[in-house]
Specification:
By secondary structure, the protein is an alpha/beta fold. It contains twelve helices and 17 strands. Helix 5 (118-131) links the parallel strand 6 (111-113) and strand 7 (134-137). It binds benzoic acid.
């Protein structure tokens, strides 16, 4: 298996491992007749994830778990080695279209894996629809990716915005919360999270008393907290993630709000609960994974991931790991053939993944169908309280495949 890194753009290409084989393969891949290319040349996977900025840890956990999965399969599939080209998205939405287009033209990947951020995700989906490259989205939740931009060659191993937040409305109602403030980063994923929460919460009789979008990726919350304190809501429902989430929880506590107002979310405490210390205690969230899930796959995954990376596993690592499994299952069923893309896509569509989160299958729009758990931070761990909603299937609005 070869891993090339081109952190921060295309010009600084550093070979991390296995240089001779990969350079040769790059040079000759295009020259092979397709029958040979189907079975002998390396499988090329382009990874486009953030390794800088507030989502840096999310990106590296996804990448490390994807690579781990391929290593566990012997570094290849069906007799073909896997070669990675790894690029830092730098979370730059405006430059992402140009950069991904260049990447696809230059490298002719069999699979493209990325990104974390929904704005970049929508750009990648638009490009994949045109280029036909198989795109596997291991995080970005924008509904459109498996909604109006859906395509046979686009898969997602993570979630849609709707899928994680809609069950939360029901949870807050069950917890007796009636007057709620929404606060979230003001970009596609934050807005869609707020909308999905509002949909189920208001349907059940709850009232949103304030809707506060805050600039992404800023993490200065004090002035918003003053406003929230004055409103005296029962609860706050929020979307922040990564470094911004840690800051949010600490500031919420520092402002004394955690003594009076219950805090709920989807991603707020994911991979961040320990770093936020006692500021994360008691926060409830709905998500498709909990590190404390009791299944043998999860126990094994957590220990192998920790041993390999020195990092604790989280939902982002799980999504990367499952992206690797989707590639493996697809290729195993085609005997390693990537030339007949129709066959490969059909094989991927029918994959059933035994994931650390539980079993997932794929909807017609290629979004995972999965349980959404209610978790609560207890002694720094996201304890699984119950299944908040079983086998949740995103409505895939606007998708022509359904
Ligand atoms: C998103 O932009 O889709 C996203 C980023 C971080 C966590 C969850 C979703």
């Amino acid at each position: 298996m070869t891993i090339k890194s081109s952190i921060k753009g295309f010009d600084r290409r550093t070979l991390i491992k296995g240089s001779a084989l990969s350079v040769a393969s790059l040079a000759i891949t295009g020259g092979y007749p397709s029958i040979l290319r189907a079975t002998t040349t390396p499988i090329k996977i382009g990874i486009f994830l953030p390794y800088t900025g507030t989502y840096a840890k999310l990106g590296s956990n996804i990448k490390d778990a994807l690579i781990l999965k391929i290593e566990e399969n012997g570094g290849g599939v069906s007799g073909r080695k896997v070669e990675f080209v790894n690029i830092d998205s730098e979370m730059n939405v405006s430059k992402s279209t140009e950069r991904i287009n260049k990447l696809i033209l230059r490298d002719k990947f069999d699979f493209l894996v990325g990104p974390v951020h929904s704005g970049i995700g929508m750009n990648m989906a638009r490009i994949a629809r045109k280029s036909g490259t198989i795109l596997i989205v291991p995080n970005a939740g924008a509904n459109e990716i498996t909604g109006k931009f859906c395509a046979p060659n686009i898969f997602r191993t993570s979630f849609s915005s709707w899928q994680t937040a809609y069950p939360a409305g029901k949870v807050l109602l069950e917890d007796g919360m009636k007057r709620v403030v929404l606060i979230y980063w003001n970009y596609a994923f934050g807005k869609q999270t707020a909308d999905a929460f509002r949909e189920s919460f208001e349907k059940g009789g709850g009232r949103i008393i304030a809707d506060i979008p805050t600039p992404f990726p800023k993490s200065e919350f004090q002035s918003f907290f003053t406003k929230i304190a004055a409103l005296e809501p029962d609860a706050v429902f929020t979307f922040y993630s990564g470094g911004g989430a840690i800051q949010f929880m600490k500031d919420f506590k520092r402002a004394g709000l955690n003594r009076r107002i219950k805090l709920y979310s989807t991603f707020l405490t994911e991979g961040t609960a320990k770093a936020a210390g006692d500021a994360s205690e008691g926060i409830r969230s709905t998500l498709h994974y909990a590190t404390t899930l009791k299944n043998s796959m999860n126990e094994r995954f957590k220990s192998v991931f920790l041993k390999k990376t020195g990092q604790e596993a989280d939902v982002f690592a799980v999504q990367g790991y499952d992206a690797g499994e989707l590639i493996i299952q697809g290729l195993k069923r085609t005997g390693g053939d990537t030339v007949s893309q129709k066959r490969l896509i059909e094989a991927m569509e029918s994959s059933k993944i035994q994931s650390p989160r539980g079993e997932i299958t794929f909807s017609k729009a290629h979004n995972p169908i999965q349980d959404i758990y209610l978790r609560e931070v207890i002694n720094g761990e996201n304890e699984m309280i119950k299944i908040a909603m079983e086998k949740v299937n995103d409505p895939a609005l606007g998708c022509e495949l359904i």
